[in-house]
Amino acid sequence: MSDQPDPHIAQKAPYAVEVEAGKKYFWCACGLSKNQPFCDGSHKGGPFSPLAFTAEKDGTVHLCGCKHTAKAPYCDGTHTKL
Questions:
Q1: Distance from C-alpha of 5 to C-alpha of 3, rounded to nearest angstrom
Q2: Deepest of 5, 20, 51, 70, by most Cβ within 10 A of its Cβ?
């Protein structure tokens, strides 16, 4: 069992966001950002770090809002079990 605390649940649903191919994004892993689902630096001093990812294509992606997904930064439906 990990000593790391659980992240804050920002919402129990995914965030549908538009992304641009080739652009780098920083997904909030701690759940404390005021700019969900993206990082605003609220994790500083804590055990979490944002997850950087680059969009593969233009379009809508569903980013995890509960911060408990096994497929970060994408929603895998874990929020339905919380």
A1: 6
A2: 51
DSSP track, 9-35: ---SS-EEEEE-TT-EEEE-SSS--SS
The b-or-e profile of 15-50 (16+ CB within 10 A means b, else e) is bebebeeeeebbbbbbbbbeebbbbeebbeeeebeb
Task: Answer for the pair 32, 43: CB distance below 8 angstroms, yes or no.
Answer: yes
Instruction: Indicate the residue type of 29.
Output: A
C-alpha distances (whole Å) from 51 to each of 30, 74, 80, 81 are: 10, 11, 22, 23
Residue 72, CB-side half-sphere exposure with 13 Å CA sphere? 18
**Global pTM value:** 0.93
On whether the CB atoms of residues 28 and 44 are closer than 8 A, the answer is no
Q: How far apart are CA 14 and CA 76, in angstroms?
A: 9
